[in-house]
Structure formats: C-alpha cells, structure tokens
Amino acid sequence: MSEREIYITKFDLERLSSLIEEIRQHDDKRKMDLASLEKELDRGHIVEPEDVPKDVITMNSRIIFTDTDSKETMTVSLVFPSDADFEKKKISILSPIGTALLGYRVGDIIEWNVPSGKKSLRIDEVVYQPEAAGDYHL
Predict the structure, then answer these.
(1) Which residues of the chain have pLDDT under 50?
(2) Could you tell me which residue ranges the Transcription elongation factor GreA/GreB C-terminal domain spans (predicted)?
(3) Helical packing angle, 10-26 and 31-43, nearest 10°
(4) Total structural domains in the chain?
(5) pTM of the predicted model, to two decimals?
(6) Domain span at residue 66?
C-alpha cells in the first residue's frame, strides 16, 4: 500500500479500536486482518469528525473507485463487518480492500497485495461521507 497520509476521525478510531479488541478476544482466525487495520490506524492523522476533509473515506462512506488495470469503476460503501454484504456492495473494513480504503482521499491511488500480485485503485469520488452530511452518529 501507498504510504500517503491518511485521516481517521476520533469517532471511527474509538469504534475500530473496540472492534479490534472484541475480535482479538473471540476470533483467532482474523488476527492477520487486525494487524493490517491496526497498522493503518497507527499511521493515521487523527481528527475530530467535524474537521475531517470532505473528500476523505471514513466509516460508512460511499465511494466510487476505478481499478487502474481493468478500468472498471465500482461504487461501494465502507462498513463494519456486521453490515458487510458483497451483493449490496458494502465492503467490510476488515477485508483487504476495506482496510486499504480507510482514510484516503479523492485522487489517491491505493495499492495492496492480492494472491495474483498487486492491485491498484484510484479514488474517484466520495459520494457520501457521514461527517460531511452532519451524520456524526454513523
């Protein structure tokens, strides 16, 4: 993954830290997912929800991105694992792509390793960001 600066809201940090602790206590199979998410959280620039730039991907954001290889465009929402639903294009924060998306901005290129090599996405638009909409409870 790219080492660009990412933004995390304090509210998202608190909820994700709680999620990490809960999973650590009850689900040994997901430790690798947790390590990736913790690494992203550790390097994030922590901001108040009302101070996060409007083009940053936060939890429950709906975004449009383009696969830089296939040029396929996709619209997805970044959600907590309990709300994930691939058919409804709701991507879990614990999936490799979900962890990769958190905190990045429109125009950023995100890279991460997949079994077939490297995957690269360009963030095209944040269609909905809870903080920008004043939905600080999401």
Answers:
(1) 1-2
(2) 53-126
(3) 160
(4) 1
(5) 0.89
(6) 7-128
- CA 9, 14, 16, 20: dihedral to nearest 10 degrees? 150
Residue whose entry in the numeric block shows the structure tokens 């009850």: 26
What is the rounded distance in angstroms from the CA atom of residue 94 to the CA atom of residue 20?
10
- Specify which residues 45 forms β-bridges with: 7
Give the CA angle between residues 65, 91, 56 to the nearest 5°.
50
Residue with tokens 């958190």: 102
| 50: phi then psi, degrees, rounded to nearest 5 | -75, -10
3-state secondary structure of 99: helix
Say how far apart CA 100 and CA 94 lie, in whole Å.
Answer: 9
pLDDT tens sequence across 84-108: 999 999 999 999 889 989 999 999 9
Distance CA 20, CA 37 (A): 9
